[in-house]
Amino acid sequence: MNQRMFDRVLIPTDGSDAVEPAVETALDLAKTYDAMLHVLFIVGQPSSVSGTGEGFAGLDNLLNELEEEGHRATDAVADRAKIDDIETTTAVRRGSPHDDILTYATEHDVDVIVMGTHGRTGVKRALLGSVTENVVRHSDVPVLTVHRKPED
Asked: What does the alpha-carbon distance between residue 110 and residue 7 come to, in Å, rounded to a whole number?
């Protein structure tokens, strides 16, 4: 049985410049291994909301805008993949970023997850947490982390 190393590559994106090196790496892997590229955007869903009335409508509007941003971000990666004839599927979900990345990877039998790191250190990292770190710690499949280029 001659199986490719990677048949399905997952690139979670937040559409930021910081994830660009990871997108490039995921595109390269998918092209090299003739793999399906899965592009995923997670809209962080608040775990609790206080208030009533207009607050919920405002939240719904914000989440809808973030979902539209997610479609733009995933479509941009898919458009780049088409240039190299890389088969691509995109998804935008609402929920907890690290949990939903792992769930998506399991549901779609992903072989490798390629993730960018934002390069936070010290207090910022401790306060903000790290989606990438949580995925690395809990993933059943390999996670390739790609650091962004340092800012001057």
From this structure: 8
